[in-house]
Automatic annotation (TrEMBL):
<feature type="region of interest" description="Disordered">
    <location>
        <begin position="1"/>
        <end position="31"/>
    </location>
</feature>
<dbReference type="InterPro" id="IPR039559">
    <property type="entry name" value="AIM6_PI-PLC-like_dom"/>
</dbReference>
<comment type="similarity">
    <text>Belongs to the AIM6 family.</text>
</comment>
<dbReference type="GO" id="GO:0008081">
    <property type="term" value="F:phosphoric diester hydrolase activity"/>
</dbReference>
<dbReference type="InterPro" id="IPR017946">
    <property type="entry name" value="PLC-like_Pdiesterase_TIM-brl"/>
</dbReference>
<dbReference type="GO" id="GO:0006629">
    <property type="term" value="P:lipid metabolic process"/>
</dbReference>
<dbReference type="InterPro" id="IPR051236">
    <property type="entry name" value="HAT_RTT109-like"/>
</dbReference>
<protein>
    <recommendedName>
        <fullName>Altered inheritance of mitochondria protein 6</fullName>
    </recommendedName>
</protein>
C-alpha cells in the first residue's frame, strides 16, 4: 500500500507568535472606550492646573512643601520616632546655633551684683543670672588698677581691664557680629540677647585717692569709648544717649571730675547719695551727671531696721526718696540690705522692689534672681 503522508504546517515558535500578536495589536483600531479617554485627557489636565493654582490649594501645597523642607533640613532621612528625639538631637544640627546666642534665654533683672569680683567668675556669673549691674572695687598702684575688696586681696593678674573692660568688649563684639546680612552693620546692642537695648551698669568703686585714681579709670575705659559702647550725656542736645554699658563712679570718685569730663561727651556718671532726693531738690545732682543714686539702707532710714519688717515711718522715708529720684530721672539702689535671716532678706528685697527701687543690692545673686514674686 502506498503510504500517504499528511502535510502538516510548520510548528510556530514562541518568537514568531509574539511578533504576530504585536503586529495584530498595532493594526487594531482604537475601541470606543480608548477614544473617550483620549478625548478627556485635555480636560483632566486643565482641571488639575486649575486646582493647583486655586489659592486655597496653592496655600496647602506651599505649606506641605515647607514642612517637607523643614523635615529634610533636620535630617536627610528624618530617622526619628518621636518629637522628643528631634529636640534631644537638635543641638547636633548645624542650624541649632546663631551668632548672638552667648546670652541666649537670659532675662535681665534689676539686680546689682554687690562685690562682684568676689565671685568665682566675676562679671559672667552676674550676666548668667540676668543681673544688669556689677561692681568693681579698684585700687591704684604703680599706674595700674587692681580689683579687690581690700589691699590684702589684690593680685597682679586681677585688674580692672582683665576682669571687666576686656571681657565686656569681647561679649559686646560677639553680640554685634559683622555678617553678610545688611542689617548687622554698626549695631551697638547690649550684652543680653533677649533685651538688646538693656544697658549694663558698671559701678567703679574707687578705694584709693580719687583725684589721681579716676583719671586712670577714664583712660582704661578707652576701648569701650572708642567702640561706641558707653552711655553718654550730649550737653549740646541736652539728651542722655543710653549705651550698652553705663559707667558709674562711686566710693572716692570725685564729683568734680565727673562734671569736668565732657570731651567729647560725658560718658561716666556719679553715684549720688539717695538722701539728696528726699527734700524735693536734688541739686547739684541731675540726669546730666547722675543716672543712679545709692545709699546705705540704714543711713537712708536714719537707723537700722529692727524686727522683720519696715514700720510706717520707714516706708514713708523710702517712698519720698524713691519718688524724688524718679522725678529727676534717676534710678535708685540701696546697699547694706540685710542678708540674714533669709526671710527678712527676701522681705526687704520684695518691699523695695514694690516701692520702685530699680536695682536690688545682692550678695547672693542666685537667690535674688529666684524671687518669682518679682521677676
Amino acid at each position: 500500500m502506498e503510504s500517504r503522508r499528511m502535510s502538516l504546517p510548520p510548528e510556530s515558535t514562541s518568537g514568531s507568535y509574539l511578533a504576530a500578536r504585536k503586529r495584530s495589536q498595532k493594526s487594531k483600531p482604537l475601541t470606543g472606550r480608548h477614544s473617550s479617554l483620549k478625548a478627556l485627557a485635555p480636560l483632566v489636565l486643565l482641571a488639575l492646573a486649575i486646582l493647583i493654582m486655586w489659592p486655597p490649594s496653592f496655600s496647602v501645597m506651599r505649606r506641605l512643601v515647607t514642612g517637607l523642607s523643614l523635615v529634610a533640613s533636620v535630617s536627610p532621612s528624618f530617622a526619628y520616632r518621636t518629637i522628643g528625639e528631634v529636640i534631644s538631637d537638635w543641638k547636633n544640627q548645624p542650624q541649632s546655633t546663631y551668632p548672638t546666642e552667648f546670652t541666649r534665654g537670659i532675662i535681665p533683672k534689676g539686680i546689682h551684683s554687690h562685690n562682684d569680683y568676689w565671685r568665682d567668675v566675676p562679671l559672667f556669673s552676674a550676666i548668667a543670672v540676668g543681673a544688669v549691674s556689677v561692681e568693681a572695687d579698684v585700687w591704684l598702684w604703680d599706674n595700674e588698677l587692681y580689683v579687690g575688696h581690700d589691699p590684702s586681696s589684690l593680685a597682679t593678674k586681677r585688674t580692672f581691664s582683665s576682669l571687666y573692660v576686656t571681657p565686656l568688649l569681647s561679649v559686646l563684639k560677639q553680640q554685634n557680629p559683622e555678617t553678610s546680612f545688611p542689617y548687622t552693620n554698626n549695631t551697638r546692642y547690649g550684652v543680653f540677647d533677649t533685651a538688646i537695648d538693656q544697658t549694663l551698669y558698671l559701678f567703679v568703686d574707687v578705694k584709693t585717692d580719687g583725684n589721681i585714681t579716676w583719671p586712670l579709670v577714664i583712660k582704661q575705659l578707652e576701648p569701650l569709648r572708642e567702640g561706641g559702647w558707653l552711655s553718654y550725656w550730649d550737653a549740646d542736645a541736652g539728651v542722655l544717649h543710653p549705651g550698652a554699658v553705663t559707667v558709674i563712679g562711686t566710693g572716692n570718685t570725685p564729683f568734680s571730675q565727673i562734671q569736668a569730663h565732657t570731651t567729647p561727651h560725658r560718658d561716666v556718671f556719679y553715684d549720688a547719695p539717695i538722701t539728696s532726693f528726699s527734700s524735693g531738690s536734688s541739686e547739684p545732682y541731675n540726669i546730666s551727671s547722675v543716672v543712679i543714686a545709692s545709699g546705705s539702707l540704714a543711713n537712708a532710714l536714719g537707723g537700722p531696721v529692727f524686727g522683720t519688717t519696715f514700720n510706717d515711718t520707714q516706708i514713708a522715708i523710702l517712698t519720698s526718696q524713691i519718688q524724688g529720684a524718679h522725678a529727676a530721672g534717676v534710678k535708685v539702689r540701696y546697699w547694706e540690705t540685710p542678708g540674714w535671716p533669709l526671710s527678712k532678706r527676701d522681705y526687704v528685697w520684695k518691699t523695695l522692689e514694690g516701692l520702685g527701687v530699680d536695682l536690688l543690692n545682692a550678695d547672693d545673686i542666685e537667690a535674688a534672681a529666684g524671687l518669682k514674686e518679682i521677676w
